[in-house]
Amino acid sequence: VQLVELGGGLVQAGGSLNLSCDVSGINISTLATGWHRRAPGKEREFVAALSWTGGSTYYADSVRTRFATSRDKAKNMIFLQMHSLKPEDTAVYYCNAKWISGNGDTSYDYWGQGTQVTVSS
User: Fold this and answer.
1) Are 45 and 59 in contact (CB under 8 A)?
2) How far, in Å, are 11, 18, 117 from residue 108 at the CA level?
3) How far is CA 91 from CA 28, 114, 120, in A?
4) Per-position DSSP letters for 28-73, written without gaps between them
């Protein structure tokens, strides 16, 4: 299983950036998917998630009105659209796919290697 993030880079505050995550080796149709990030000197934190059905989305309060996650099951890809970026959004962004057993007792996370997003003031 491999997750590869694309689309990171340098952007000015107030700008937009789109991240994508190419997933191979597993079908995301039955997985919850999402994004986390790790800012310099901080712990990795949750950013956004999409339930395995695709019917529910979840966002960190800090990004709720500015970021949107989606996925393309046919292409087996995960996306994160980021708008109105702030310097505090600077971090390494990781895509994530989570398998959860039918009874919810067991889960396993797959992670990408991360892509750097830098927002200049």
Assistant:
1) no
2) 33, 26, 26
3) 25, 9, 12
4) GGGSEEEEEEE-TTS-EEEEEEE-TTSS-EEE-TTTTTTEEEEEET
Give the distance, in angstroms, between the CA of residue 26 and the centroid of all CA atoms in the same chain: 17
Task: To the nearest 10°, report the CA torsion of 28, 37, 114, 52.
Answer: 0
* DSSP 8-state class, residue 87: G
Exposed / middle / buried, residue 63 (Cβ in 10 Å: 0-12, 13-18, 19+): buried
> Which pLDDT tens digit goes with each residue over 39-75?
999 999 999 999 988 889 999 999 999 999 999 999 9
| 98 backbone dihedrals φ, ψ, rounded to 5° | -120, 125
| Lowest-confidence pick of 2-6, 46-50, 101-105 | 101-105
> Which amino acid would we find at residue 95?
C
